[in-house]
């Protein structure tokens, strides 16, 4: 049987980044639990061609590879930093290059980071509707982490780790369904 592919995408250009650390942690936990092939990217991996791209065809090789990995994944972990209550423009531009049919029915675990609790609803008011437009299946438990949940780029909050565990548990239904359809 072919191993299912999980792709994590962080909407951050910064390295190191709390958003990337969160996406990596979630992806690692899910890939270990469900024996998934894992890849994790951030906007630095996408590169500079993103800013000039009007379509997928305008992306350079590196950016196209990241986009192809995202649309070719069986499951996604998408995380974004929060700037002024929403996701960054270049993250949205990357998502705008994806055809809605390319994400239809794809399970997506959504996550965000921000400086404080004021941004906590970003996952519900920004990310969930964005992926709803694509007719993707955002799992019920979304993850939000603030600066106090980290020490450097390490997750130190027991409550955050527990919430991540709940969200990864919710992927089980999608993993088993995809494994069943792949085995047919």
From TrEMBL:
- Show the Pfam families listed in the entry: FMN_red (PF03358)
According to the UniProt entry, its GO molecular function terms are: oxidoreductase activity
Q: Which domain of life is it from?
A: Bacteria
Q: Which UniProt keywords apply?
A: Flavoprotein, FMN, Oxidoreductase
Transmembrane regions listed in the UniProt entry: none
UniProt key word Ubl conjugation: no
Which InterPro entries does UniProt cross-reference here? Flavoprotein-like_sf, FMN_Rdtase-like_dom, FMN_Rdtase_MsuE-like, NAD(P)H-dep_FMN_reductase
Q: Where is the NADPH-dependent FMN reductase-like domain?
A: 5-147
The answer to keyword Cell cycle applying to this record is no
The text of the family note is:
Belongs to the SsuE family.
What's the name of the protein?
Answer: FMN reductase
| Name of the encoding gene | msuE
């Amino acid at each position: 049987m072919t191993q299912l592919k999980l792709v994590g995408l962080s909407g951050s250009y910064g390295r190191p980044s709390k958003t990337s650390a969160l996406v990596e942690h979630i992806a690692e936990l899910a890939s270990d639990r469900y024996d998934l092939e894992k890849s994790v990217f951030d906007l630095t991996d996408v590169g500079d061609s993103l800013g000039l791209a009007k379509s997928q065809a305008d992306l350079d090789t590196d950016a196209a590879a990241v986009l192809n990995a995202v649309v070719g994944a069986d499951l996604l972990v998408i995380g974004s930093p929060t700037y002024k209550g929403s996701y960054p423009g270049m993250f949205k531009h990357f998502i705008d290059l994806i055809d809605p049919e390319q994400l239809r029915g794809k399970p997506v675990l959504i996550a965000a980071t921000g400086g404080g609790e004021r941004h906590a609803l970003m996952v519900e008011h920004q990310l969930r509707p964005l992926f709803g437009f694509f007719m993707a299946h955002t799992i019920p438990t979304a993850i939000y982490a603030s600066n106090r949940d980290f020490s450097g780029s390490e997750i130190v909050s027991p409550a955050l780790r527990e919430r991540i565990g709940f969200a990864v548990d919710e992927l089980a239904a999608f993993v088993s369904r995809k494994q069943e359809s792949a085995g047919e």
